[in-house]
Amino acid sequence: MSSPTREEFLREAVRVASENVAEGGGPFGAIVVRDGEVVARAGNAVTRANDPTAHAEVEAIRQACRALETFQLDGCEIYTSSEPCPMCLGAIYWARPRAVYYANGREIALAAGFDDDHIYEEFLLAPEERRYPAIRLDIEDAEEPFRRWAEKDDRVEY
User: Based on the number of CB atoms within 10 Å of its own CB, is 114 exposed (0-12), middle (13-18) or buried (19 or more)?
Assistant: First the structure.
C-alpha cells in the first residue's frame, strides 16, 4: 500500500479546519507528518481555550513534539489549511520541520476577516516604534542567565 500524497495530507489539514469550525473553533487546521504517518493533528483553539497562541500550527507542533518526545521536528512535514501567520511561522522555524505545505494564501484568510499584514508591517519598525512598544531597559545583571547558560556543560543546544 502506498503512502498518502502531499495533496492528501493537505486535504486532511483542510478537513481538520472545516471540522474545527463545526465544533466552534476557527477555520484553521494543521497536521504533522513523519515518514508518511500523521503524528499530530489540531484545529485552531484560540477562542475555546482563551489562548491567543493556540493556533492550529502551534497546537499541532506541541502535540507532535509530545508524541515524538522531542523539541524539534527534524524529518517532519507540516500541512496547514492556510499560510502560517507570523507567530506560527516563528514556531515552525523553531521546530525545524523539513517543509511546510499550505492550501490557502493570506488573501483568503484576509477575505474571511483574518488580517496578518499589520503584524508583518510591525516587523519593519524599530521595536520602540511598534503599536505595542518594546522598550529595552538596562538593569544590573540582565546578562546573568546567558552567562550561566554559556558556562553550563550539560546544556541542550537548540
Answer: middle
Count, in order, helices (H) and strands (E) of the chain: 7, 4
Quote the pTM value.
0.93
Helix (H, G, I), strand (E, B) or coil at 45: coil
Active site residues: 57
Query: Which tens digits make up the pLDDT trace of 2-13?
Result: 789 999 999 999
Q: Which residues, in sequence order, are bridge partners of residue 101?
A: 79
Give the C-alpha separation, 81 to 102, whole Å.
5
pLDDT (tens digit per residue) in 62-120? 999 999 999 999 999 999 999 999 999 999 999 999 999 999 999 999 999 999 999 99
Adjacency order of strands within the sheet including 29-34 = 37-43, 29-34, 76-82, 99-104
